[in-house]
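hey so u asked for the seq, here:
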Amino acid sequence: MIKFGTSGWRGVVSDEFTFANVRRVAHAAAGSVKESPEVGYNSDEYRQFLRGASPSRVPTVVVGYDTRFLSEDFAREIAAVFASDGIRTLFSKTDLPTPAAAWAVLDHKAVGGVMLTASHNPGQYNGFKWMSYWGGAASPAITNDLERRVELLGDHSVKAMSDERSLKESWTETLDFRKSYFDQLESLLDVKAIRKAKLRVGVDAMHGSARLYLRPFLEERLGVTVIALNEDRDVLFGGRSPEPTPESLAPLAEIVKKQKLALGLSCDGDGDRFGILDAGGGYIPANDVLALAYEHLAANRTLQGKAARSVMTSHFVDAVAKAHGCETRETPVGFKYLGELLRSGAFLLAGEESGGMSIRGHVPEKDGILACVLMLELVALGRKPLAAVRERLYKQVGAFHNTRLNYKMDRLRQIIELESRLKVKPPLELAGASVWRIDQTDGFKFILRDGSWLGLRSSGTESVFRVYAEAHTPKRLQEMVDAGKKLLQGKF
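ran it, structure tokens below
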């Protein structure tokens, strides 16, 4: 059964993620596009298009792909299905980051976009991410519709147009989306200040699709000196998940320290998540990056607007936004919810603890490259390490210490039983203090009066159960983590 999680449909290649299933999902997306009232189409107009109309007048969809095994082949198969269904495709010339594909949807006024990626999942996975015309992840209503269409299709085969016919009739056009995306990023930055700072940084592309975007943008548009790692295409990502964790960024940290670089910058497999290393190679957690980014935009760029974050993200950004007279909105986990808020124009920044962020005026989709260049701009303007800026914020709004731990459950039944017990009989006391409020927006979040909190939820992209915790001191944080472990063991 094909199900869309927090960021699209993912599966193991040749097991669930097959060409036949990819064609079925593409056909479902085509049907959704043609019948969607948001696109402004009706059946009479569409039938007219099919009767020899020029492909330039039919719906246009962007199709992109990352560096994974067979990604380009899967993408071409999708384009062939779209052509057969009367939909024109703008096909990426190279592998590209998800945020660049999202920007292409906006830039070309496409009715939607497909990104072939499994993001930070291991190399044996691939995925199908559907982006709506607004350049962000499709809403649950749309993905639910896609699932229904695939289910109704059953095992019926899906037609795909031949490459020869598609090329002859111009149903597919191959484009390089880099220049437009670079222009967009540049419009969001103080390029003059960055060039003046003459910074030297390290970049780890993790063998992913940021390889043709992050370093080139830094060098070509910002005049930054870059020492690059892992820019070759490796479909197995060096034998590990392409996720910029402290462990995976250890080689980059060593280079940053030895070469005395200003920063270490990295993105995950499809460039929508970020990893930031400070001068000296110290890892800056995503939760802290969000707070630093908001402070930078509000204080250095004098921009105003609310903050938005997912439910399991640190309250650090809340405190920084409050210091600037702005409130914060909380959403379920998944950037599709945050993207909806960014589209309103009232929110300056939206982010999540897993390393996703975007800002007003950009795509309502997480952009790891944007996060990297904003941290670069912050350092260029302040001429101080990120840790120094964070310490200043701690003195101003209080310290926030947090963590996330992943636990593999032996059976799905264990997860279901645990969640059922927490709903029926939730703990009213944790780590020696009474629970002030329980939030079940997405999983379980137990909030204490001293500002510390504990979160429990099953992942929407991996077979793990996650424990989140935050407190104002390291000692209190450990107490919250211990309490979370006890809950996982059923001790409540």
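Residues 332 and 442 are 5 Å apart (CA to CA). The radius of gyration is 23 Å.
lmk if thats what u needed
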